[in-house]
Design brief:
The complex is a heterodimer. Chain A is α+β, with helices and mostly antiparallel strands. Chain A contains five helices and eleven strands; from the N terminus they run E-H-E-E-E-H-H-E-H-E-E-H-E-E-E-E. Classes of the chains: A alpha+beta, B alpha+beta. The structure holds zinc ion.
Chain lengths: ~200, ~90
């Protein structure tokens, strides 16, 4: 079943306006709402160091999630912009995803018309041999020490991801952080599911 | 008793509870008290050295504890402790 989020047109417009105003840097914020219905934005400053390729929501803004909840609402979504890349979660987005119950909204300014899409980023519990996967796939270093391989829907599953043990859900990223070759890598497998956005 | 706010990603460890009332005189003691009730919570907040993980922020009321006394930050009955995983990410790089 496709999950949905109602994101009224006025809120979509606010995200786009904030994205355009913040260019070439990424912008970010959180969305208050209730039961899959967005009601208001709380824009944040982007407090990342390299803001043209990264975002980091101000912790004081994120703390508002508890204020929402005390009033019976919740943090239904988190938004950020991709000034020069598609409206799709990057390997870095997958690596840092921390709120599986919130919708990740991404506003892309890559094309002439801004585009907003919504996703859920969910951990897949998986047990596999990373060394074998590295040998069988072409992965890339997306940030210093952060490596990723993306499995698109319908593409063959490498032998390293034994089908009997590996959940069939796709697409997903396998991302691992290994700041130095001697260190034991930290690994995450993150499923990317599209959330349909409706304006009412 | 002090109220500790638990973020959604940790609630599968707290039987769904969004806040817990626990006893302790410092932030560190409160985290251990939560962990005693709901084993596994401390491991999500603290690293192997017992420090707060880099991507976790812990607030006493409106102040992040790194700007106070860290895990030794004292707490009273009326304080609110909030555990807030960082929200970060970025774009694909060519
Ligand atoms: Zn991103």
């Amino acid at each position: 079943m496709t999950r949905e989020l109602v994101l009224p047109y006025t809120l979509q417009r606010q995200i786009i306006d904030q994205s355009l105003a913040g260019k070439p840097e990424e912008i970010c914020g959180i969305v208050r709402g209730r039961e899959r219905q967005a009601a208001a934005l709380v824009p944040s400053r982007n407090v990342a160091e390299e803001r043209t390729i990264n975002y980091l929501v101000e912790p004081s803004v994120l703390m508002q999630q508890f204020v929402f909840e005390d009033a019976g609402d919740s943090m239904v979504a988190i938004y950020h912009s991709h000034p020069e890349s598609p409206a799709y979660p990057s390997a870095t987005d997958a690596w840092t995803a921390a709120y599986p119950e919130s919708v990740y909204l991404i506003c892309s300014l890559e094309a002439l018309q801004p585009v907003i899409r919504g996703f859920e980023l969910l951990d897949i519990e998986a047990d596999f041999d990373l060394t074998a996967l590295k040998q069988q796939t072409s992965f890339h270093e997306t940030r210093p020490g952060l490596f990723a391989w993306y499995r698109a829907t319908g593409t063959p599953l490498p032998d390293a991801l034994d089908r009997t043990r590996f959940p069939a859900r796709d697409p997903f990223y396998v991302v691992w952080f290994q700041p130095d070759p001697a260190a034991e890598p930290e690994v995450r497998v993150v499923y990317i599911g599209e959330i349909r956005l409706k304006s009412h | 008793m002090t109220t500790v706010y638990i973020p959604t990603p940790l609630r599968r460890l707290t039987a769904g509870a969004s806040k817990l009332e626990v006893e302790g005189s410092s932030v560190g003691e409160l985290i251990q008290a939560v962990d005693a009730q709901h084993p596994g919570v401390a491991a999500k907040i603290l690293d192997a050295d017992g420090e707060v993980k880099r991507f976790i922020n812990v607030f006493r009321n409106d102040d992040e504890i790194r700007s106070l006394e860290g895990l030794d930050t004292p707490v009273g009955e009326r304080d609110r402790i909030s555990i807030v995983p960082a929200m970060a990410g970025g774009a694909a790089t060519a």
